[in-house]
Write a structure and sequence with these properties.
- The chain is mostly helical.
- Helices cover 62% and strands 3% of the residues.
- It is built from five helices and two strands; from the N terminus they run ααββααα.
- It is flat.
Length: 177
């Protein structure tokens, strides 16, 4: 059972990519059919231009996932590379969020019309919020690294109970760096 984890990762990635491509194809067909057959009167060249512009990020993300996540096998069937984890946190997770939101906006634009593309404004707003909260968390986490703190500046609330008891008994004084 050599490379069991890699084989599981490869199988998981293959299933995820297949599901992603099928959903994307279904949404594209749904858009084309509904716009051409049911909402023909409101379907203009601008409709297809908006579809192309706002679906481009989803197509790019799918291409990227295909490139980094597709397992590579040797001609004899041996697994050479299992692909990156498509369920990873961080940038991959953010890219999934953009992909899902694009699909939602496409379905909404299919049913509600071209004004539903304004829902795509949420993506940059979400990006700014995510960056702000990440930066704010880093700023709070690095507040103690300023180097200006000394033993005199440290309040007694920052000491552990053991340190307080030792200082109360007159024992060894704690020195802080």
């Amino acid at each position: 059972m050599a490379q069991k984890a890699a084989k599981q990762q490869a199988a998981r990635n293959t299933a995820i990519l297949k599901r992603t491509h099928l959903i994307s194809l279904a949404i594209a067909i749904f858009f084309a059919l509904l716009r051409l057959l049911v909402f023909r009167a409101s379907c203009t060249r601008a409709t297809y231009l908006l579809y192309a512009c706002f679906s481009a990020p989803a197509f790019f993300i799918e291409f990227w996932f295909e490139r980094i996540g597709r397992p590579v096998t040797a001609p004899n069937g041996e697994l050479k590379k299992s692909g990156e984890d498509l369920e990873a946190k961080g940038l991959t997770d953010f890219m999934w969020d953009v992909l899902y939101w694009t699909w939602g906006c496409t379905v909404a634009a299919t049913i509600l019309g071209d004004k539903a593309w304004w829902g795509y404004v949420v993506v940059p707003v979400y990006s700014v919020w995510l960056a702000w909260t990440t930066f704010g968390g880093m700023r709070k986490g690095m507040a103690g690294m300023s180097g200006g703190d000394s033993a005199a500046d440290t309040p007694s609330g920052a000491m552990s109970n053991r340190q307080k008891k030792q200082e109360k008994r007159g024992g060894q004084k704690m020195q802080y760096r």
